[in-house]
Amino acid sequence: MRLHRRAGIQHKSIKMADLNTTIHKLELKNPVLTASGTFGYGFEYDDFLDVSLLGGIVVKGTTIYPRQGNAYPRMAETASGMLNSVGLQNRGARYFASDIYPKLTKYNTNVLVNVSGSTIDEYIACAEIINDLDQIAGIELNISCPNVKEGGMSFGTSCTSIENVVSAVRKVYHKTMIVKLTPNVTDIGELARAAEYSGADSLSLINTLLGMAINAQTRKPVLATITGGLSGPAIKPIALRMVWEVSKAVKVPLIGMGGIMNATDAIEFFLAGASAIQVGTANYIDPTITLKIIDGIDYYLNYHKFNKLSDIIGCLQL
Amino acid sequence: MSAKRVELTALNGHQRMFKFHAVRKTVQNLKVIENLQLNDDHHLLQLKVPDPLETINPGQFANLLVDHTPAVFLRRPFSICSVDYSKNTISVLIKKIGEGTRALAQTQVNSYISGMFPLGNSFTIPSEPEKILLVGGGSGVASLMNLAQELRRNLNDVTVLIGARSSADLVELDHFSRYGTVFTTTEDGTKGEKGYVTDHHIFKNQLSQFKRIYSCGPEPMMKAVAAKAKSQSIFCEVSLENTMACGFGVCLCCVTETIEGHKCVCTDGPVFNINQLKWQI
User: Fold this and answer.
1) Under a CB-based contact definition with an 8 Å cutoff, are residues B141 and B172 in contact?
2) Å between A176 CA and nearest CA of chain B
3) What is the pLDDT of residue A1?
4) Is A86 in Cβ contact with B249 (below 8 Å)?
């Protein structure tokens, strides 16, 4: 059955192109995943779409200990984007394993867990718990959260700290390990190489850009934490540039994200060198957008007479 | 779905008792049937829903998409202030605050708005008829409109107190007068008693006759109402309005502090019992 019928779009298409893509040992039926923190645990979307139709989902950032997250206000809408400062609110890896994981096994797709921590030991402890969950296909190591006081992004901004945390988690986590990079650095290629060298099977990029919003009337910052992470179409050009730079720096497959709102945006990331993409902020505006993007990619491949997705990955014409 | 419809039809008589239905959230293109300008700031949009309406509970909201401009990116949440099951329409009250709400208020009849609904929990309706006070402020009356109707349908004795800055800011009084006794306060004294809602004589000497208070409006007003309710141990629910990105519990941006930690206003709320909240009252 054609996906677009479910997504409510009607257009004629000749035949389904081969949308399979591979991220290390993960076989994805299509290259569209959901970005951590924008898709809950999947079941929040059950009313809107069949989650199993996606290439995979990356569930909410998980830490070994429960976290209350930051104070309200946590969100500011900005031109073509939004700032958030949630601060990794979650109920901890043990609660995830006992109460949430059993509900995820119904999905016939790759479920990945975004793992974060304040110390290397916390990353290790969290990854160990996730490692024991058979139906979790892999982890996305979050060394790029801009909204926590300790850990998070600070692990992702120097080669030494990346090597320390990635190699430590590599020792305890035996399935696919994706490392999520922060854009808040000078040379992302150098940091990507450090992550690859330390055992990352794949890299995902970019996390949010550190930003700020001010209310001129009250003369106060909009966010309780003053600064937050910028996402949405406003950051897409930066994300594309970084995927392009990293694709030249490493050999591992890349998962591109940053402001993808439609299939054309996704295609741009494939051309820049991404083997798969994640959709984040767009899910808030249209919870079925992922299915429309899958359809649109298929339509693009057919229209341009490509048989398979891999024909366009990294094929930017220079 | 069909089972729910049958149940709804069976209960559709004048005396149908309230029953909470967990209805599937949808995204639909809603046709603007009517755009009524109520005063300088407020518009009432009546929206035709393509799919058959399932029960919408009082207090629930819809997240409307504003046609894309760079500055207006996310959907905007609005209380569903009335539901017409026979016409298959819902209505929302739009107060022009920023670019998004101004654009929605200017929507032409017969054009379409993408709406995600029904979202959120709802007010708790008593199982037996009771004497109930609704306290609304400004555009907060929107979430009380459907509630007043539902309470009256369940034979509750409804009193409505609405506060605004000035008489020109009071909207939908006629709607409320169909379902109960209506009192008003204005800060400038142009209609009803002068002052804030909590200055009204009901709060001075008649509060104890009410078994329940429901309130929606600016947070300082709701806190003042909650303090009065708490001082007399009266059941009180308030409807909160925090900025949100998604509206269905995934972005975790709209949290409020409760005795059980951070809760999402969009899914755990917007209606909270005041005893759940960590308000200093």
Assistant:
1) yes
2) 25
3) 37
4) no
CA distance B135 to B120: 20
Q: Do B252 and A74 touch (CB under 8 A)?
A: yes
Q: Cβ(B265)–Cβ(B242) under 8 Å?
A: yes
Q: Is the ipTM here above 0.85?
A: yes
A225 touches chain B (CB under 8 A): no
Active site residues of A: 145
Which residues 116-175 on chain A approach chain B with CB closer than 8 angstroms? Answer: none
Contact B75 A284 (CB under 8 A): yes
Beta bridge partners of B164: B186
Report all structural domains of chain B as residue ranges with CATH numbers, in order of start.
2-119 (2.40.30.10), 131-239 (3.40.50.80)
Per-residue pLDDT of chain A (318 residues; tens, 9 = 90+): 344 444 444 455 456 889 999 999 999 999 999 999 999 999 999 999 999 999 999 999 999 999 999 999 999 999 999 999 999 999 999 999 999 999 999 999 999 999 999 999 999 999 999 999 999 999 999 998 777 776 677 788 999 999 999 999 999 999 999 999 999 999 999 999 999 999 999 999 999 999 999 999 999 999 999 999 999 999 999 999 999 999 999 999 999 999 999 999 999 999 999 999 999 999 999 999 999 999 999 999 999 999 999 999 999 999
Q: At a CB cut-off of 8 Å and minimum separation 6, what does A294 contact?
A: A3, A19, A30, A32, A53, A54, A55
Name the pairing type of β-strands B26-37 and B42-48: antiparallel
**B160, B200 in Cβ contact below 8 A?**
no
- Please identify among residues 228-247 of chain A the ones whose CB lies closer than 8 Å to any CB of chain B: 232
Strand (E) or helix (H) holding B48 = strand B42-48
Task: Tell me whether A37 touches chain B (CB under 8 Å).
Answer: yes
| Pairing of β B261-264 and β B271-273 | unpaired
Q: Which residues of A touch B74 (CB under 8 A)?
A: 77, 82, 284-285
CA distance A203 to A197: 12
- Would you call A75 and B245 a contact, using CB atoms and an 8 Å cutoff? yes
Nearest beta carbon to residue B248 from set A44, A81, A89: A44
The β-bridge relationship of strands B42-48 and A75-78 is unpaired
Fold that domain A3-70+87-212+231-311 belongs to in CATH = TIM Barrel (3.20.20)
CB atoms B250 and A44 under 8 Å:
yes
Distances in whole angstroms, Cα of residue B28 to Cα of each of A3, A48, A312, B116, B155? 18, 11, 34, 7, 33
Tens digits of residue pLDDT in B3-17: 333 333 333 333 344
Please, what's the b/e burial string for A141-169 (b: 16 or more CB within 10 A of its CB; e: otherwise)? bbbbbbbbeebbbbbbbebebbbbbbbbb
